[in-house]
Structures are given as C-alpha cells and as structure tokens.
Amino acid sequence: MPSTARRRPGFDQRGLYAYPEHLREAVQQAPAAPGVYVFHAQGDRLPLYIGKSINLRARLQSHLRNPDEARMLRQATHITHIRTAGEIGALLLEAQMIKQQQPLFESPRIS
After folding, report:
1. Helix intervals (H) in 19-78
2. What is the pLDDT along the chain (111 residues), one digit of tens a residue?
3. Core-most of 19, 49, 82, 86, by most CB within 10 Å?
4. CA pair distance 101, 41, nearest whole angstrom
5. How far apart are alpha carbons 1 and 61 in whole angstroms?
6. Is the dihedral of CA 29, 67, 76, 95 positive or negative?
7. Is the pTM of the predicted complex or chain greater than 0.85?
8. Strand locations in 13-103 (E)
9. Strand pairing partners for 39?
C-alpha cells in the first residue's frame, strides 16, 4: 500500500489560494491570438514564468484558476505578452526567451 502524506486534522490546502485580482486586467486585455507571455516580479527584470499559447487570453485565465500556481502568482506583479504570427513563431520565441532570461519557475528547455 503506498504511503500517504500525513496532514493535520482540519488543514485545508485550498484555503491557501486566493484569486490574483491584481493580474485580472492584464489577462482581460490579452488577445485571443498566438504569442508568448511573461509573468514578472519586480519590474521587467525578474521573469517568473515564460509560456506560449495559440490563445493568450485563454491560457492566462487557466493560470489564474490553478491553485497549484499560487506561489508564483503571489510574486507576480504584472504580465506582458508578445504576439506572434502563429504557433510555430510562439514556440520558437518562447524557447529563445527561456534560454536568455532563465525564469525562476521554469528551467531552460534548450542547452
């Protein structure tokens, strides 16, 4: 039988998650188009996470609904995005940006 993590009685992990209201406007203004997005902390100098999507707005909304990403979302001060011509452009730009900027919550995929 696999071992299970012990939890204190009455401890509810979901209680730690709070919807990141401070990022809502950036998500609503993102286009429903392909591109690369960046969650930033402390201005534009510290990228927390870099991702890509064929629909930026939908992908960003999915981040905000995910309690597993609460730690990153609490540190994020704002979100930027760069539109691309399509999915391949987003894939290539994301790989380049991850390699150059080395975001905190993501390890580079390209050596």
Report:
1. 24-29, 56-64, 70-75
2. 444 555 555 545 555 566 778 888 999 999 999 999 999 998 777 899 999 999 999 999 999 888 888 888 888 999 999 999 999 999 999 999 999 999 988 754 544
3. 49
4. 13
5. 38
6. negative
7. no
8. 35-41, 46-53, 78-83
9. 49, 79
The whole-angstrom separation of Cα 44 and Cα 55 is 23
Q: Rounded to whole angstroms, how far apart are CA atoms 15 and 89?
A: 39
The answer to whether 98 and 91 have CB atoms below 8 angstroms apart is no
- Sheet of strand 46-53: strand arrangement: 46-53, 35-41, 78-83
pLDDT of residue 42: 80
Helix, strand, coil % (nearest 5) of the chain?
A: 40, 20, 40
